[in-house]
Design a protein that fits this description.
Number of strands: 0
Structural class: mainly alpha
Strand content: under 5%
Order of helices and strands: HHHHHHHHHHHHHHHH
Helix content: 55-70%
Number of helices: 16
Distance between the termini: 63 Å
Shape: globular
Length: 277
């Protein structure tokens, strides 16, 4: 399949325009202009398309043709045009588009996730993908992020992943559950209580996101530990406050390496009001 590099054509046009009008606009103004020009480019008839516009070119394709065209752009390493992606998004989760979720090429699957989003018809497959070895952390992170907004719809599917090597993704999704469920609360609490210091911030954040104030005693007990570092302390304090609690005891982190790095990044300005918190 011979592909048209729409982005290359547009970039060449804009390069000439920028050169012609150099110095007349700020960087921000050019960014806005480029976005506006790209939108107009999508509505511009092109001789390579026999007078069709880029948007018309993709709009007349079937779902299957759009999917195959996307695959070819990636296979031939040609920049995927936004017009193609927008047309795919507009078709919703048709069978041809959903079939992309059975592919294992990471780049192709990530495009599919962006196109499909959190469409209800994809949720079951997303849950399956979290449990499959064929997908790496990049794909699973993206899936978990999509599922968090639909956590109430996939609670049972996520609970089934507990105790597996993909439990961390399930816990991330379950933290977004709005419907109260004792199994979810117990899973998030158990994960927090079993976490090492490195994982404390993550699981404390999950408890904060879930929003059940019954987790306060565990969080308050954890923040009292003398062996926790500054990063874990800050996340625990945030989680406590998010659940309606408070922790005002002063703690000294002036010897903590993370605290020192934060201080250095702030050019010596103590953005936390001193080494004692």
């Amino acid at each position: 399949m011979k592909l048209i590099d729409f982005d290359e054509k547009f970039n060449a046009r804009m390069a000439r325009e920028i050169e012609r009008r150099a110095g007349t606009r700020t960087e921000e103004e050019w960014e806005n202009e480029i976005a506006a020009q790209y939108a107009r480019f999508g509505q511009t008839p092109l001789k390579e398309l026999n007078g069709q516009t880029p948007r018309q070119y993709f709009a007349q394709m079937s779902d299957e043709q759009l999917v195959e065209t996307l695959k070819e752009y990636l296979l031939q390493d040609v920049s995927v045009p936004d017009f193609l992606c927008e047309e795919l998004e507009g078709r919703a989760a048709s069978p041809a588009i959903l079939a992309l979720l059975s592919q294992t090429d990471e780049e192709l699957v990530l495009y599919a996730l962006n196109v499909i989003g959190d469409d209800p018809r994809a949720l079951g497959r997303y849950a399956e993908m979290l449990g499959e070895e064929a997908y790496d952390e990049h794909v699973k992170d993206a899936i978990a992020d999509l599922l968090k907004g639909r956590a109430d719809d996939v609670t049972e599917l996520m609970l089934a992943l507990l105790g597996t090597e993909n439990e961390a993704y399930a816990l991330e999704v379950l933290s977004g559950t709005r419907r109260r469920d004792e199994r979810v609360f117990r899973a998030l609490t158990d994960a927090f209580l079993g976490a090492d210091e490195e994982s404390f911030p993550l699981y404390a954040g999950y408890l904060a996101a879930y929003g059940d104030e019954r987790a306060l005693p565990q969080l308050l007990a954890a923040i009292e530990r003398e062996d926790i570092g500054f990063v874990a302390f800050q996340e625990l304090k945030f989680a406590i406050e998010a659940l309606g609690g408070a922790y005002d005891k002063e703690r000294d982190f002036s010897a903590d390496e993370s605290y020192k790095k934060i201080m250095e990044a702030g050019a010596g300005t103590d953005i936390f009001g001193g080494g004692r918190r």
